[in-house]
Amino acid sequence: MLAVASVVAFGLPADAQQSTADGSTPTGGTDKSSADASPDAATATGSGSQRQRATTRPKRKSSQNENQPALITADQIVHDRDLNTVTARGHVEVDQGERILLADALSYNLKQDVIIATGNVSLTETTGDVTFADYIELTGDMKTATTKGIRILMVDDSRIAANSGNRVAGDRSVFEKGVYTACKPCADNSGSPPLWQMKANRITHDEIEHLIEYNDAWLEMDGVPVAYTPYLSHADPTIKRKSGLLPPSVLNNTIVGTGIRIPYFQVIDPYQDITLTPMATVSGLSSSSSSSSSSSSSSNDGNYEQLALVHRWRNIYGGTKTTFSVTNMPESTVETKATVGWHVDAYGRFDLDDTWRAGYAVQRASDRYYLTTFGYHTPQPYLTSRPYLEGFDERSYTAFEAYSFQSLSTPTSTTPKSPVVFPMATYSYVGNPGRYGSYWNFDTHAAVITRQDGVNSRRVNTLTGWNLPYTAADGEIYKISASVRADGYNSDHVTTDDNKQYNRARSIPMASVDWRYPFTRLGEHSSQTISPIVVATASPYGGNTSKIPNEDSLDFELDDTNIFKANPGTGYDRVLTGPRVAYGGQYTIVNRGMGTADVVLGQSYQVHPEAVFPQGSGLDHHVSDIVGRAGVSPSSNFTVQYGFRMDKDSLTLRRSEINTSIGPKPLNLQTSYVFYDRLNPTSLFDAREQLTGTLSVQASHYWSTQLYTTQNLGAGAAPLQTGVRVIYEDECFQITANAGSSHTTVKTFTAGHYFTLSINFKTLAQFPVDVF
After folding, report:
1. Which of 140, 159, 453, 495 has the most CB atoms less than 10 A away?
2. Span 154-198, pLDDT tens digits
3. CA quadruple 380, 382, 387, 392: dihedral sign
């Protein structure tokens, strides 16, 4: 079969559109009056067949794409010079810039610059959207079009369909009697409606504003109308951010009452945006819902009004995020006696160059209950503010920083006792390897710690060390270290009734030898390694005078991570001195394709124990408690990690932590058991024994369930929280239902039942609801 290629210049002068049978001009083809074809224009496509190609150039030259030639490929192209039309049939393809038009047949009127395409029409836009239609009429630059029976597959797999549509100037499309959905058609029943769709009398897609608008629209679920709106808009899939109102969220709890949040999102520039969220509630906290609330009367009948702000800025050199809220409270809080609450949570980081970076964190609240009252959760029982400047060189680290804290576990009235650390500087250096691989290290630290009411201290700490790692011929591994520590302190108000100022200095030389002797056995399918460990440390006694305030070594606990350190303590203020030896071992087995297991055990002995660390720390006797860790992971579907500390005499457990993960993702059980015996009466934490478990079940491709519980197994054993979470999620829709009971009561949370819903119409809107 013979196919003919023809060159047709869209919009070119008439003399450039003439063709001759001998192909003497750049345009040859089939002329209806002569019914001949130009052999010079024919392009071989293999196996004796030929295919027509037409190169065209549009009239408009407003963009780079429009100045590119339009290329037509078809099985047959006919140029009628009398009617000044070009007709293409069979596998028609028109390429103009990044736009591609496919059809069974095409007619182009050169004089009117109008293309009519019929039969399996598809038009791929520069955005990646693909338009399908039964009939399409468009201009030669493919920017203005009229369609019938239109369907659009957008770049994010969402879909628009309409009876008819018009496209104007290449950037605005209007669809009459249209529907929009992000759901894919059902493979087993193509005639059934999608899970959800927006059906509107008119849908407008503004590609300049990147906005899809609906007029007189219904939201349908499985073909059933469930919600009506006269107008709705959302961003199209070509952008990630768009200014406008976000879906509201409904609140309903015993503390703030029933209310609503309506967020507004504003794009400021390509690097920053802001979200403003006003909130209003009615019938909030009353004297009956919290026995610890203030006795003062409510000034606004239990209503809360809040304005929250979130500002984000980011570029290649760093970023910031600031969260702030201010709330008109119905009652004065117990601690601040104020009717206005607030909080701020801000952080930022800036890369100054390849070595230096700066940043900050600011966390503050009007009182310790504000964050939990309004759902601003923090993982720590305190808030931290910290500016910093850091430098990372090849072999050194430098930091200048400051700290300020706010406790969330003690009354706001104790704030004057909270420390402010300013300034604080740290420098660490590790030298290049020298003879036999030895190297020097140098660490220095300086800080000023002040309080409005309490201990004030100024300190400088330095440590200079020499280290020699060595591996003997028989496989023994040594690390020999020697160091000298020199510290200087200036302190006042060391005790409550002592306002004197003290100057103290100390110099502590220390030497240690770390010895390990790993024995390895290689099997056909596994390898086993057992290694005894001995660390001997020697230093003169002393240096831990009571006139040096203990700021950073208050709650030390011995475990497998510090038992083999020359100085197992944390911080700078307390140092473990005198002769000491730590001993233990490690066993590891690795099965090829069958997982791993490892065990670590350790204990230490000191000649004359000092009261450096608090009672119950595990190091307050000659022989320490036994610490260890065990882990088993025969496969990725089964993992157990166990850490413990046992009494040296009775072998009674003082601390026990077990974390497990059993089963693959479709059926997985995760548990966490914690036991902590409060041996130190000054510890910040009470004794506790607690079990947490989560069972996750992927019931089907779309449905999943989580059952979760937290149980108190210690004194007054009782469940703390139990609940169930059910999730349905497919490519276009997600709904999460969370229901349960909480059995913990604090000032800002009353024990009882709860039920929340989160409904997400993907690409359209998300609706979180606190039912109760």
Report:
1. 140
2. 888 899 999 998 888 778 889 999 999 999 887 776 678 899 999
3. negative
How many angstroms separate the CA atoms of 81 and 55, rounded?
17
Mean pLDDT of 141-154: 85
Encoding tokens for residue 302? 């239990």
Picking from 139, 166, 183, the residue at the C-terminal end of a domain is 139
Are residues 730 and 693 part of one domain? yes
Pairing of strands 382-392, 244-245: unpaired
Q: Say if CB 687 and CB 712 are below 8 A apart.
A: no
CA 423 to chain CA centroid, Å, is: 32
End-to-end CA distance of the chain: give it in Å, rounded.
74
Q: Are residues 475 and 577 in the same domain?
A: yes
Q: Phi/psi at 404 (nearest 5 deg)?
A: -145, 145
Structure tokens at 40: 């010079």
Q: Closest Cα to residue 268, out of 315, 313, 322, 237? A: 313
> Do 659 and 707 sit in the same domain of this protein?
no
In this structure, what token pair is assigned to residue 310? 């979130």
Is residue 519 classed exposed, middle or buried when 0-12, 13-18 and 19+ CB atoms within 10 A define those classes? exposed
483 and 602, same domain (yes or no): yes
Given this model, what pLDDT does residue 768 score? Answer: 82
Region of residue 45 (left: phi > 0; alpha: psi -120 to 50; beta: else): alpha
Token pair for 117: 């395409």
CA-to-CA distance for 335 and 294, rounded, in angstroms?
9
Q: What is the mean pLDDT of the chain?
A: 83
Domains: count for the chain: 4
Position 190 scores a pLDDT of 67
Residue in 252, 250, 255 with CA at minimum distance from that of residue 369: 255
Q: What is the pLDDT of residue 148?
A: 87
In a domain, 640, yes or no: yes
Q: Tell me the pLDDT tens digit for each residue of 255-268.
A: 788 889 999 999 99
Residue 498: the pLDDT is 78
Nearest to 248 by CA among 763, 755, 769: 769
How big is the CA angle at 162 (ends 161 and 164), to the nearest 5 degrees?
A: 140
Q: Minimal CA–CA distance to 93: which of 77, 114, 110? A: 77
Say how far residue 526 (Cα) sits from the centre of its chain.
Answer: 38
Looking at the fold, whether 603 and 561 belong to one and the same domain comes out as yes
Which token pair is 119? 């039969």
Res 474: pLDDT: 93
What does the alpha-carbon distance between residue 205 and residue 165 come to, in Å, rounded to a whole number? 11
Taking alpha carbons only, the member of 69, 73, 80 closest to residue 41 is 73
Residue-wise DSSP of 139-183: ETTS-SEEEEEEEEE-TTS-EEEEEEEEEETTTEEEEEEEEEESP
Q: Of 213, 242, 271, which residue sits at a domain end?
A: 242
Q: Are 523 and 499 in contact (CB under 8 A)?
A: no
Query: 613 pLDDT exceeds 50?
Result: yes
DSSP string, 519-565: EEEE-SSEEEEEEEEEEEEE--S----TTS--SS-SS----TTTTTS
Position 296 in a domain? no
CATH number at residue 121: 2.60.450
Residue 123 and residue 182 in one domain: no
Residue 605 · residue 619 · CB < 8 Å: no
Alpha-carbon radius of gyration of the chain:
37
User: Is 72 part of a structural domain of the chain?
Assistant: yes
> Which residues form the domain of 581?
454-663
Q: Are residues 66 and 110 in the same domain?
A: yes
Q: What string of H, E and C letters represents the secondary structure of 670-724? A: EEEEEEECCCCCCCCCCCEEEEEEEEEECCCCCEEEEEEEEEECCCCCEEEEEEE
- Contact partners, residue 488, CB within 8 Å, separation at least 6: 459, 460, 503, 504, 505
Residue with tokens 């300013």: 422
Asked if residue 24 has pLDDT above 70, the reply is no
**Tokens standing for residue 771:** 């039912």
In terms of DSSP bridges, do strands 172-181 and 340-351 run parallel, antiparallel, or are they unpaired? unpaired
* 91 and 204 together in one domain: no
